[in-house]
Please model this.
Amino acid sequence: DTGVSQNPRHKITKRGQNVTFRCDPISEHNRLYWYRQTLGQGPEFLTYFQNEAQLEKSRLLSDRFSAERPKGSFSTLEIQRTEQGDSAMYLCASSPRLAGSNTGELFFGEGSRLTVL
Amino acid sequence: KNEVEQSPQNLTAQEGEFITINCSYSVGISALHWLQQHPGGGIVSLFMLSSGKKKHGRLIATINIQEKHSSLHITASHPRDSAVYICAVGKYGNKLVFGAGTILRVKS
Model:
């Protein structure tokens, strides 16, 4: 399978616990994005990487959130001291880089659904 | 005001009808994406376009850069087209901004 893979697909945790999500992008894609989606809303940008460099981080990403892409391949998104408001679907997408720094077609994973009790 | 506005928010159509979903944006963009999301979360890219028109099967996407507007058309709609359709714009600098989505239900 050469699609974008995310795990775990579902995570239920108690408030205050830490959680980590993993995303494996399509292998030849150098751009990787994290988005968050709540019910009835479109995805909201969290952060993106070009290779291993984190190029932009949304103001939505508080200090409790950290994302890494250490070798320019898979990425992890960690949420520390989870709060009920963190409950959402966390989506990962990857894309190739086009000429002129533009974004190529996006390929999304199935998402990781977080429920904080 | 959101940078990306979609209309309508909800749309119910009868099988076979021609459907149009609109997207307006207020920022300079490098490309516009139309995405489809089925219940359960999976998002599929339908089109990426920066000018003119693209067609894939029964789906047609158009964009007018001067008017900052795009439309997604579905011809001969079918119940399996029922999904959320999302417009997203790629801003210069590469961050994508998403519309809230249009919930489409096609009845047989």
User: Anything to note?
Assistant: Chain B touches chain A at residues 4, 30-31, 33, 35, 40-45, 48, 86, 88, 90, 93-101 (CB under 8 Å). Chain B is about 0% helix and 60% strand. The two ends of chain B are 36 Å apart (CA to CA).
